Fold:
Amino acid sequence: MSVNVLNTPFTKENLDDYLKDLAKEFRKLNGKTVPAEIILIGGASILINYGFRELTYDVDAIIMASSAMKDAIRNTADKRGLKGDWFNTDFMRTNSYSNKLVEVSVYYKTYSNVLTIRTIAAEYLIAMKLVSGRRYKHDLSDTIGILREHHALGRPITKENINNAILFLYGDAVSLPESSRQILDALFNESKAGVDYESLYSQSIENEKEAKELLVEFDKNNPKILTEKNHEEILINLRTKKGTTKETLLQRLEESKKNNFLCKKQAQRLASSQQCAAKQAQR
Structure:
């Protein structure tokens, strides 16, 4: 997994222009009687709903349209000088995806009477960010930013709201990364008189910047090792053990993989045992 940095940043203003062009291209190719619907996810969803993010480097989406949309996306990229993958559904292959996202999407805007854009409601957007919990992206700072804006507007999002959103999207089997649990503890620590959102947000931005620099350097020196699944453990090793060699790190990753496999097997056996006990009790 290389840590991608796209050349063209998206802002709220230019994203709106690109969506207008996309709608026009789709209408040209597909006609005006067959509509399409797109749900913006992640950074793009935050851009159009909040003020704390000035830009994003990717546009993740759920696309519900005819095959003409692929050509419309490509034509818009050619017209605007964007990369071919400027608009993509790659996130649907990550653990933050849920087929229930469609149910919690909210209307944003319609372009050219054929393209309806929707986004994700706040607590569910936070749920996605926490399940992903990537320290080198904006997952944690975005979580703080959303909570900060809702708090300022007098519409605070509670921990219960977030837990219910996680449960609805992913069920009770999901396990949050350590980074996400730490942020939740900092944000909803009942012993605190109040949350210092500004300090937490600034510190999170700095941490994410440092994490990204570490992973980019590691990926440059050790290509084809970094993946979406092991980046957290690699980052921990890079931060705590500056002298870690490639061989030592690979050994630790292999040991961690074996431990995770054993834990998964134990959990499966426990679940099976509980199911058997429940069936016996029903007889």
